[in-house]
Amino acid sequence: MLTYRKQIPIIATPDVLVCGAGLAGIGAAVSASRGGASTMVVERNGFSGGFFTAIIGSAFDGFVDERTGEPVVGGIVFEMLERMGVIQPGTGPSLRYNVNGDFSFVEMHPDRVIPRCDPERFKRAADDILEDASVEILYHTQVADVVTEDHRVDTVVVSNKAGLVAIQPKVVIDCTGDGDVAAWAGADTEKAESLQPMSLHFRIAYLNPDFEMRRKCASVLKQVHNAGKLDLYAGPYPATFSGRDVYFNATRYPGDNTVPEDWTRAEIQGRRDAWTMFEAWKEQLKEFEDAYFVTSGPTAGARESRRIVGDYVLTGDDVREGRRQGDVVVLGAWRLDRHPATQAGYHEIPWTPPYDIPYRTLLPRTIENLLVAGRCHSATSEALASSRVTATAMGMGQAAGVAAALAVATDGAPRSVDVKSLQDQLVGQGAILEAPESDVVVGNPKW
After folding, report:
1. CA dist., res. 203 & res. 374, Å (int)
2. Is 24 helix (H, G, I), strand (E, B) or coil?
3. Within 185-307, where are the H helices?
4. Total structural domains in the chain?
């Protein structure tokens, strides 16, 4: 054990500090700053975007009611789609969308708009929206420690090329995905005994993809798996950005990404498995005749790690039954997509109706000036299988950012924010807080 003393410079005292600039962090930082709070966001990568950019993702999961294609998360999600040129300004609420860009769902509803998010377009759009909102951005900066006093976050210590430096905000929003700030501040957190596996996505170019290619790819992976050349794998779940390139969500590695050794092994094994898959497809499938392995994701993505214990814990029954909540701040709509840590191939993903996510799930029980947004919010492991995804996270972030600005304008305590005022502001910003009605029967993807 090493103990040492060091004076650390305080580099900033913003009203609101957002830790992590993934989907939740972008929503939080933009909405807090637009709400009048001086806002800083720190991000360990050299770019924003989280799942879309650091992992390579395809679309806003949780964005729509799968029955009708009607959006259930609005606000900044619409704005990002506009900034990337996916939709025309002002048209967002009137369009009908596919669930995401995965071939399986596109095959089910080929007539709907795909809310596609190309990683490089998303990076640029994220930079622009943050700067346009006057958010102070610090990339290559990672939370290293938290100092608390009287159940409040007093100081967040971060690490970057300046060394260890300190930031002293009035309100903190934890959008790290892993609940780093909440955990290091002493908030109550939980982890499932069996976490969903991590995945390293990868991108292949010069393909001629169609819906049959997906099924052919799955058949090849099953053969390779049965031959003992590939252990755990997912799907595969392919999606295309341009029509000539495909990103694959196909690797699985069981472990906990808050354990550095596990995350390291997920990266190494993920790259090995990705190349095993690519080489098998190139050898056996004509569609891969001219294929080129472009890149694997900058990082392996985690679906689940720490979850805070908040003023309310979202449950699996809340999700399955589409329950309404008086303090709703965003709707969830993704299937119960719980990737197994011991099963290769496809897994069951039961449909869910749109459901309410309460503001209380963003409030850690024991820390007064801290909010969370994204997959570290207060939910059971089962409920998180749905609420963890991209559009839902951005909607949570927008709600947390508005709440933080309201808190700064009063007593600095997010827990004392008037929920009706919070909801009114969110609706005024284009958020959707009422679930659409539908009697349409939902089908299952043709795996």
Report:
1. 25
2. helix
3. 211-226, 260-284
4. 2
